[in-house]
């Protein structure tokens, strides 16, 4: 999750915060809920490999554009970020997965809708891919 920016000014403002720059994010993320490794709290997935994609593009990993305003440029490259992360994970074992759960909340939940089918295609139809959007259904998108 992490919300969206809706126009060039809101994306420019976001770029200077932890929601818009990996340089400003916390260095450590805690896995909780469906990502927890505690079998009492997460009996179904506690022993699965887990990856948390750090969200900073402001468009649910779906954009591929830039906005120029004089001397400044705002890059909205969420789709490229998604593609690069998945390509990297495929080489690190994702390509051998038998079961995959893609999940996200809020803007990340919307990203789940956007990328679920593509992830299944990238895995060649061999893995069972399930997708769970948590609070990511926006009627206006």
From TrEMBL:
Protein name per Swiss-Prot or TrEMBL: Pectin acetylesterase
Subcellular location: Secreted, Cell wall
Residues annotated as signal peptide: none
InterPro entries: PAE/NOTUM (IPR004963)
Function description: Hydrolyzes acetyl esters in homogalacturonan regions of pectin. In type I primary cell wall, galacturonic acid residues of pectin can be acetylated at the O-2 and O-3 positions. Decreasing the degree of acetylation of pectin gels in vitro alters their physical properties.
Listed GO MF terms: hydrolase activity
Alphabetically ordered keywords of this record: Cell wall, Cell wall biogenesis/degradation, Hydrolase, Secreted
Membership in a protein family: Belongs to the pectinacetylesterase family.
Broad enzyme group: hydrolase
Its EC number(s): 3.1.1.-
Highest taxon of the lineage: Eukaryota
Main location, first listed in the record: secreted
Pfam families: PAE
GO biological process entries: cell wall organization
């Amino acid at each position: 999750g992490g919300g969206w920016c809706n126009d060039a000014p809101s994306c420019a403002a976001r770029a200077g915060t932890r929601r818009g720059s990996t340089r400003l994010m916390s260095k450590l993320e805690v896995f909780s809920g469906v990502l927890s490794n505690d079998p009492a709290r997460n009996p179904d997935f506690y022993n699965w490999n887990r990856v948390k994609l750090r969200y900073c593009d402001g468009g649910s990993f779906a954009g591929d554009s830039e906005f120029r305003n004089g001397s400044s440029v705002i890059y909205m490259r969420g789709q490229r970020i998604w593609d690069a992360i998945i390509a990297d994970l495929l080489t690190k074992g994702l390509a051998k997965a038998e079961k995959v759960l893609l999940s996200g909340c809020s803007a990340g939940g919307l990203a789940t809708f956007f990328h679920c089918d593509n992830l299944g295609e990238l895995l060649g139809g061999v893995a069972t891919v399930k997708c769970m959007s948590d609070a990511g259904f926006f009627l206006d998108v």
